[in-house]
Amino acid sequence: MGKSLLLLVLLSLLGLALAHTNGFGEQPLSKIAIHGATLALNNNASVIVSPSLVGLKGEDTEWVTVDLVSPNPSSDDWIGVFSPAKFNSSTCPPENDPKKQTPYICSSPIKYMFANHESNSQYASTGKASLRFQLINQRADFSFALFSGGLANPKLVAVSNFISFDNPKAPLYPRLAQGKSWNEMTVTWTSGYDINEAVPIVEWGRQGETLSRSPAATLTFDRTSLCGSPARTVGWRDPGFIHTSFLKNLWPNSVYTYRVGHLLSKGSYIWGKNYSFKSSPYPGQNSIQRVVIFGDMGKAERDGSNEYSNYQPGSLNTTDQLVDDLNDIDIVFHIGDITYANGYISQWDQFTSQVEPIASKVPYMIASGNHERDWPNTGSFYNKTDSGGECGVLAETMFYVPAENRAKFWYSTNYGMFHFCIADTEHDWREGTEQYKFIEHCLASVDRQKQPWLIFAAHRVLGYSSDYYYGLEGAFEEPTGRESLQKLWQKYKVDLAFYGHVHNYERSCPIYQNQCVKSERSHYSGPVDGTIHVVVGGGGSHLSTFSGVTPKWSLFRDYDYGFVKLTAFNHSSLLFEYKKSSDGKVYDSFTIAREYKDVLACVHDSCAPTTLAS
């Protein structure tokens, strides 16, 4: 093979690997050249949507039927869903360049579907189609527009009647998170009510007891809070108001009921649905405790819309498996690459709606990934555009984490016998940095007699992964990933380290400095002489290929979607399970059995030097 051809092949493979590592495929809405849309209105074309008023019984999700007729049908015709319903040039910000023509449409649709979707394959010959869309309540009305010319050259042919939810401002999509103390739970939700219009509150209490009411803080943001396009331009959509209430002094391991709502200025109340959660056990409490961890899930549409190149093909399967297993889950960690909205703000509402059955019942803890934070010249460690201009604002506002500074997304949290140290790979973690000091303090501060199970988690792979791209570099890690941190993992005897970013599943042996320190595969006991590193980035986004080389430390690899479940039975027994999202069955597992003296035992580089002096 000639040198030039070999170089071309290597570059092509590198590009493929990079695409897999960072989320293959573009955000579907970014394929639409909406700024270049032109008018081609046709009086003989029509788009009729029914029903026009939905949510009459308080529903936050509804299906509508879209019947369309076009006298000049084509296979690349498509329907876009716009919200707010009015999307003409009156909503466009002023152009600074007088030579530029103001676009007719300045906001992306919130979803789209081709007219010949599924059962409408004859549309190109008949000019008639009937499509089904699922809408969620997003604080504004909706309209449906028929475009010809495909996504790259859209021509507006017809616009539908307007559709609305009965109460577009309703409080929706509650998501729980651990507070800064073990006996505090936070409830965050979204509504259309500003604090000048209504006071946000939570009504809550132990199951079967008198309920009390707690106030909530309210946040929002505008375009100027964001860092670039599309978040500030075609991807912008008003996020509404995000409210967070802090439920304090909870009894351990107790069931609480709650509902979110608003006290209107006229004295009446608007309430959301009734929910319940189980409070955290006291740190060190001996009970069965179950944790789920995954990364890179994203969102998908149950109506089949937005599926250009099948952007997040495993997302709904993962969501549905977690819902099915919810009675046996106590807390969830989604370690980065949350929605893959990439600057299209409407997608965050759709994600919170998708995970609402989970996040409303158990704490849904998130970490920051490249698709939440990265934007050039904004302080992110990687000078990339992966966030689409969001630069962390959406993740920091839409979800609560118990960080001292939510713009710096590192934090610790406790759940019974578990202690978690969550790092932020989009900020520098290397020795001497603020985050490095946090990580060491987090690892050092845990009382392993009470909390024997010490977990480290981060988005990018700071430990070990035989991903194809990492294999090309030869280190099988994020560049400079573990060089500073592995001595901390070893010194403080971290049991497990979890990562996303690479969209597959892989488990290492207990390892230190590239060497397996135990030969077992399915059961571990004795001193903690190395950390098991787990890539669990197969939550939903396009899968990442493995290197053709399988390192000795790689015990199990799976090119599929899935998540990890940890079950602590007591202070000396832990079960690890990897489950596939497609069927919920266990495909990899191991157990750890040990006593407190095993945690105390000195292993290589874990104890300070000793002397014989008395």
TrEMBL record:
InterPro entries given in the database record: Calcineurin-like_PHP (IPR004843), Fn3_PAP (IPR040974), Metallo-depent_PP-like (IPR029052), MPP_PAP (IPR041792), PAPs_C (IPR025733), PAPs_N (IPR015914), Purple_acid_Pase-like_N (IPR008963)
Purple acid phosphatase Fn3-like domain boundaries: 48-167
SUPFAM superfamilies xrefs: Metallo-dependent phosphatases (SSF56300), Purple acid phosphatase, N-terminal domain (SSF49363)
Molecular-function GO terms, alphabetical: acid phosphatase activity; metal ion binding
Catalytic activity of the protein: a phosphate monoester + H2O = an alcohol + phosphate
Domain Purple acid phosphatase N-terminal: 174-278
Name the record gives this protein: Purple acid phosphatase
GO cellular component assignments: extracellular region
Signal sequence bounds: 1-19
Transmembrane feature ranges: none
Compartments it resides in: Secreted
UniProt record similarity statement: Belongs to the metallophosphoesterase superfamily. Purple acid phosphatase family.
Subunit structure: Homodimer.
Cofactor(s) the record lists: Fe cation; Zn(2+)
Main location as per UniProt: secreted
Domain Calcineurin-like phosphoesterase per the UniProt entry, residue ranges: 290-505
Ranges where the Purple acid phosphatase C-terminal domain occurs: 530-589
Origin organism lineage: Eukaryota, Viridiplantae, Streptophyta, Embryophyta, Tracheophyta
Name of the top EC class for this enzyme: hydrolase
Source species, domain of life: Eukaryota
Protein keywords: Glycoprotein, Hydrolase, Secreted, Signal, Zinc
Assigned EC number: 3.1.3.2
